[in-house]
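Entry type: protein chain
Record version: 2
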Amino acid sequence: MKLKLLILFLLSASVVKSQQAESLETKVNALKQQIENLSYNFDELSKGIEDVSWEHKMSDFAFVDKVRFSSLASAQVRSKTGKGYNNPLTIYAYVFIPKGIDLNKKHPLIVLVHGGVHGNFGLSNAHIVKELLAQGYIVAAPEYRGSTGYGKKFQREIDYGGKEIDDTKYTRDYMVQNYDFVDKTRIGVMGWSHGGMHTLMNLFQFPDSYAVGFAGVPVSDLIMRLGYMNEEYRKLFSAEYHIGKEVFQNVKEYRKRSPVWNVDKLKTPLLIHANTNDDDVLIEEVEHLISALKANNKKFEYKIYEDAPGGHHFDRIDNYTSKEYRLKVYQFLQNYLKPSHPFKDVKELTKAGYYPTK
């Protein structure tokens, strides 16, 4: 009898312990979810502060606005029976118009695309925006689907190499349709990293929409890239709200979303910059892109910098050499976009982007 009681006691204790463990696990998971939701809330708050900061930082140089407009419907539709399932997705874009320009004349436009699998158009771009404005460019910066700062749902709308590319094109179209002083024949697209990938895919898919493009350290081959990136990065792409499968499960889909497998479509003047010590987009990935373009007998320009300070950000930081590298980009763009005040040297660039206004 004592043995039976002991067994019953141990069994009941085991059940209680199991229930406690399950309860604890439930609480931990709930806490993790709360923390995740708070991180999205914090991103939204940060974006709101940043919007105010853009106005404060640029008001001496430009009229600053933030617009919203419809693009393609969500790529994340799970059911086609729900009301409004195919409604266009609303995206945001920053608009910077140089102060004092003649609105009765036509002016060139730069579509400046931010980087990051999940990123946004942050204040780290301020010097570049100032430099573009000083040359006479209007600047539009899309916050394409998947960008941070707009809540969990919008961030999970990401469609890497898919409809997010259309969001950038829709930004270009919005500017042409709504600003009479934008010259639709003088539009360039540019960006670095993931923004460089946007540049490439926009040129490949919409060759008649742009006069020129610049792709800095561009993500070029997802298959190669996921082979050298860590597991956490790879999981972003296999997540249900993302591509949803690993590379080996759907090679065709990853190729469709990679510039290197679409180079045959290039018709537009293109400049590519890369850096041999880039620890984000490895030089081998960009070299694969360059080789593919050459194999398809495409006309383009490129420059591979050797161990330039700054690694992945070598031509976006504030070093003197970084400004020299950017000047080369601007000189390439001005050949096709003909801005009213092109830079002649680094001194002019520095004065425009870094000096205080009178």
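Comment: The chain has two domains: 1-58, 61-354.
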